[in-house]
Amino acid sequence: MFRDRQEAAEGLVRRLSHLRGRDPLILAIPRGGVPMGRLIADELEGELDVVLVRKIGAPGNPEYAIGAVGEQGRVQLEPAADHYPESAISREIETQQALIEERRRRYTPVRAPIDPAGRIVVVVDDGSATGATMATALASLRPRHPARLIAAMGAAPPETVARLERLADEVVCLLAPANFGAVGQFFADFGQVSDDEVIRLLGTEHG
Fold first, then answer.
1. Helices (H), the chain
2. Considering the entire predicted model, what is its pTM?
3. I need a surface site. Which of 4, 122, 153, 196 has the fewest CB within 10 A?
4. Does the N-terminal peptide bond of residue 111 adopt cis geometry, omega within 30 degrees of 0?
């Protein structure tokens, strides 16, 4: 178990130390991935931005993820989505795309998203249960031609790691136990990260 997201980020820095000095682009998945991404970007002397992805909740049960949608409109549906009406899923996708647009306006209001083309890109999250969100992030970035695409997270089940290995050039996952329940079970402190905290971490000058 990790003490908190900072300890998980420090573990990822050690696994990614070979990227120091190579100007990696650290793309954090909000909101929990952003404090980790800030620390990783600072330690590896890279740049930090967010990759905006939202889970698609099941109609009537929004906490149950049946897919995810990315900033460029890339939609990744899980097999469970077949059990729900297409019209309801379409409405949920539109809702989440609107939230993505609103978040981009709030998070980086004075600049465009950083271009990943030709860069070593590390996509960071605190953890990944089904892998839907991370998979959508990776799938949305691949057509933008990063030189190398790495997925990095604190915890995920083995089947999720295997799924992500098909989408990324490298997967760095610190904990991958077979008895995986939820990401939060691996963090003693798993407090929510606010939008204000995300904005502060993205806007602060470091270096």
1. 5-15, 33-43, 86-107, 132-141, 158-165, 195-203
2. 0.92
3. 196
4. no
